[in-house]
Amino acid sequence: MSTAINPLSAHPLPGGRRHDLDWLRIIAFAVLIFYHIGMFFVTWGWHVKSPSANAGPELVMALTSPWRLALLFFISGVALRFLSDKLGAGAFARERVVRLIPVILFGVFVVVPPQTFFELRQDGALGPDPLAFYAQYAVPSVMHGVITPTWNHLWYVVYLLVYSLILAPFIPALRRFADGPAGAAVGRLWTGSAGALALLLLVPLPFIAYGVLLDPVFPTTHALVDDWANHAHRFTILMVGYFAAKSAAFWTGVRRAWPLAAAYAGGFVLLSAALAGLGWPDFGAAASAIYDLLTVIYAWSVILALLGLAQRFLNRDGPARRYLTEAIFPFYILHQTITVAAGYYIAQAGWDVWSEFAALTAITIAGCFLGFEIIRRVAVLRPLFGLKAAGTASRPRRLADARGLGS
User: Fold this and answer.
1) Is 1's pLDDT higher than 70?
2) What are the Acyltransferase domain coordinates in residue numbering (predicted)?
3) Between 50 and 391, where is the model more confident?
């Protein structure tokens, strides 16, 4: 398990140390953090808004939407395979509950409430007393159109816990399938003469079906109980990660396919930029359906390209990786509350948009680093932010051991 993967090898060792996936996890969360900073400045609805909000950044942000969370669920699926193999089904389920339930509860009742408070304050629906607000927030209700209590950006952790518990009883069967003849047959698709094209085009097929059959019926809610299209997308990409985790054929296929995937992704970006420059003309329902199909392939192509690039260039260790691997989950938990709170006050400062952006970015990043430095030093806070007990924090970590978010 300690052998590093040689990305140039003809037969990658998917059971080895995966520093490349650690780096991708860090990058994926960083993209998410900057996406939420960007939400302050665009015209789409969000918790608090800049008075200078405009459509300028929307194309760039929209181009991350098809893949950024899918990448996180894929990596979480990889980690789920490593961790469940290490612990066994029962211990894996217990570990997920013990690790993630405190994070969810603390998040819902401590970390997230300021987001709702500042949202309602900016809407003019709430007075300045946070204690009066919290007394109402903690009681299940609808507060000025906002369901409380709520998990907001922590929906990802909730879904990951639920998926893990659903899968736990089936872990032995899933492992046998992945490592048996069926898994080998699928692997041969990725290593054949048309393997790169197969890997690029076959994996998106279920997601294309979801887009046709489920997305129009079940809009995304992040409310768990009525989010069926979102569940289909997220659970499926999680399972793709699970089956890919220890498949040497898959990682060989990634090494071969990523240049093609990167070329496709680049072409899609150029197409989208051209259409945006034309004001998104209406070419009819058929053209819209084709663009939606191309978008699904684009999402997977970005993931493939990132996996290949990371395998080639990021499979290396160092102090930055070790620090950020531990820090990134607390960053994720903290960042949106910092962004919303800072954004509320920045919106009242009367600054130009670039000054607002610089200030909000600096405050969010500095707040995440400061928060993590406090959290890592206070034993009682560590489990509330998904960190292991202080006595085990310095042990070298595999991707499978980065348990804060199961990824």
Assistant:
1) no
2) 19-370
3) 50
